[in-house]
Amino acid sequence: MSNPLLANVVTPEVLWWALIPVILLSAGGMLLLTVASVVRRLSDVVPQAWTVVTGLAVLVASVPMWNEVRSGGPRSYLGGMVAVDGSTVLVTAMLAAAVVATALLARPYLAREDLPGVELYVLLMLSAAGGVVMASADDLIVLFLGLEILSIAVYVLAALHLRRIESQEAALKYFVLGAFASAFLLYGMALLYGATGSTRLALIAEHLSSVVLLDDGMLLAGIALLLVGLAFKVAAVPFHAWTPDVYQGAPSPVVAWMAAGVKAAGFAAMVRVLVVALGTHASDWSPAVAVLAGLSVVVGASVAVLQTDVRRMLAYSSIAHAGFLLLGVQAADARGTAAVYAYLVVYTLLATGSFAVLTVMGGPGDSAHSLDDYRGLARRRPALAGAFTILLLGQAGVPFTGGFVAKLGVLAAAVEGRGYWVAGVAMLAAAIAAFVYLRILVAMYLEDGYLEDAGDTGDTGDTGDAEGTGDTGVPLGARVVIGVSCVSVLAIGIVPGPLMDLARDAVPVLVGG
Amino acid sequence: MGTFLMASSTGVPFAVLPALIVVPALGALLVICLPRRRPELLKLVAVTTSVIVGAMSVWLMKGFDATHGAEMQFTSQADWISDLGIQWLLGIDGISLFLVVLTGVLFPIALLAVDPGHDDRAYYAWLLVLEAGVMGVFCALDLVVFFLFFEVVLVPMYFLIGRWGHGNRAYAATKFFLYTMAGSALMLVGILAVAFLHADATGTSVTFDLVAIAEAQAIDTNAARWIFAAFALAFAVKVPIFPLHTWLPDAHTEAPTAGSVILAGVLLKLGTYGFLRFGLYLFPEASHFFAPVFLTLGVVGIVYGAVVATMQRDLKRLVAYSSVAHLGFIVLGTFSLNTEGIEGGLLQMVNHGVSTGALFLLVGMIYERRHTRQIDELGGLQKSAPVMAAVFTVVMLSSIGLPGLNGFVGEFLVLVGAFNAHRWFAVVAAGGVILAALYLLWAYQRVFHGPAEGDNAEMPDLKLREGLVLAPLLALIVFMGVYPKPVIERMEPAVDALVAHIEEHVDGFHEPTSRFGADIDLADDHADEGDDH
Questions:
Q1: pLDDT tier at B525 (50, 70, 90 boundaries)?
Q2: pTM score, two decimals?
């Protein structure tokens, strides 16, 4: 440092270990893109294997990161722009798991649909990197950056099925509405900056807790716009209109990623901004979030009932799930936040599993998604139908599945905060949603001359043949994804303690004031 | 979980209540792992499992300390979600003991009685899962764990009705699931509210321990009434109480025979048991406040169920509607809020399980032979199947409440209790007894008497297997009618304690003194009465 001018420059502290997931995911994506453009004939196994390995590496890396955060406490780095805490690591791990699952589903899908192979994996890893940035943002600008990295990659992913017009339509809708949402979000951030003088979450919180705003109009407008932008991203009513079309049109593995990964990142961002930075003004935003929650569960559940396309059903049910998650957010306390993370873990499992089943069921052209296509599935593919049953019952929140534990957590948070009405509305909506899942179960088990079939073939029809033909139709990757999600959903349902502890330890804290 | 399975307060070598839940669950797992082409092996495993569970539950009666019937016995505890203070808290007292025994006895019978005909493996697995769930409901002493089991029984029952049922089974199964799930939706909110309000009021950490919350009675009256309403809705759908009963005839009629037996025998009791344990005990004041509503609905159910049963042309539907009437009696007794009424209601729960279970078995046997349940198409069966007719007579008379059989004791106690509390309700309800005689005797007459034509004349009589299945139920019907003392003496301390609990926590409420003069010593009294017949 001979130059005297540089002596006063403080280089920001960099916690390299905390950056490992972002580095792995973005470098992995770039590297894959480079290799694929140089090597002419790349086997389609390579990109998949590469993505799975990268995802697993992030997953493995999150274990020492978690321990480090637990022992050394959460901390902020890069000049207070980025933080690492329990929630960062947990969401990172969830995203990594979702990347692995999506990659496992993608290859058979691409082969079946005869689509070019590399872009999906590259975009997947890049969007995951964006998600990790969102989960570790300690500053509104970084948050926005992460969101855009995530979103832009997903816009393209939605359009990946070149020959399906629905896929193109979905991508365009998603892009236009997503761009609007980003604009709202950005405007909200600008207003928030105007009201508090900072974009750093810690400084915003400090300012709001030490200064009494006489005229808080700008702050409230900023919060409102932020809320609109985030509600778009997590698909909460009334900002949900894009969801059913996009879920129906986008390639099935991409939908799995959107349902699991994008939602998790969106909620991580929402919790960071609302609960952590704006926690002092919870009385301003919490009622609004409660209204969003109530609307989402009711509209999501009741409109799902009217659908005949299973993907649209699950799209609306994901809106209802977003409502349940908001139930935890509106509680605006540690219990609520922990419940949100527990719910997210369970929902990630349920969503990837369910959309894995849909990917398998979609058949050539990815179009066999009507309820009719599920008729008599229990007879044709008993194992697949059984797994889907577990996942659907989990989504319905039946006891001894993770779904129940997740719902119990957010409800407890809502009730503790005296949110009886919204909790009651949510439970009634859950009963309506149960009807949706039952319709699928009825189609699988009780329709299409189920008994008559059995009668015709007698006992021999009820043998391994049916199971055999069913199972050979399910690619290995999908089997792994479905199997793992089913087993974890049941395990969490029976022994929920570890997940609850994990979620409690992951509650984000304000660092880097 | 380790300590959970080992620990037991009563010096029993193993924790028997967790075993009641875990053994059938493991049995179900084992069944799933067996080859699907061996129905006889599947049945053997399923029946063996349920017989083991049944034996354990009957053994509970022996191990149960009748002199401390009001205390929770065989308790065991383990943490489940420590963050929320939710724990596996199991235990039984004189109120739940007989429901556990009833469950233990009815399942092997239902399993033995009928073969599913197709998909045996799934059928037996679901039935065992159902048994685990029901046992869990009756043993749970933690509100959330209770809810857990209360809800989970829907799934196996849904599949049993839907996959092995008759006719309109998908509709019936879906209706059953949605009705009960919607009914209990608000109960979970109520459970959470009760725990957090209790924690606030007492300054303790959150707990869902039933006994702790109920004994403290720390929640403010108005809140308790709202929460009671949320609980009551769930139980009222499950019982079912008129006018929430419409799922019942469909579910009962379309369910396979074993499903109907379990549904009527055990599952409906989840609601009435819920009222006793999580209504009266947890919210004595609110129960007293709302009692007139339930007394009225109970009586309406008795009369309505009886009248509608009279109109039925389908024998199984007739029995289903008779359940509505019988459960009206149970509700009437329960909300009389005095010892006779509650004890009678409790006794009726067991009686109804035994006699209606037997009726459904008999109807199922008739259907298997004649492939119809239409009363018009049957007739004169007494000539071709005299033994079946005799068995049917006994079961029917028990259901009507003939003195000397089990139905009488319970009905009589309910009427005494209702009379002491609210005279006119008892008067109307007594009319229901006459109606029960009307519809059952009339149905019997049309099915078993008269000329036998066509297939009716050649209907085979009971087979040995069927006789063996029915024999224990018949024995119970006669035994409990003649000598109810062993049952009543185990129930009585718990019921007395419950009534005392209500008196203590409801201002100005006292159990009305018996209008029959001195307080009757129930146990001995009915023992004598039975001996006369």
A1: very low
A2: 0.90
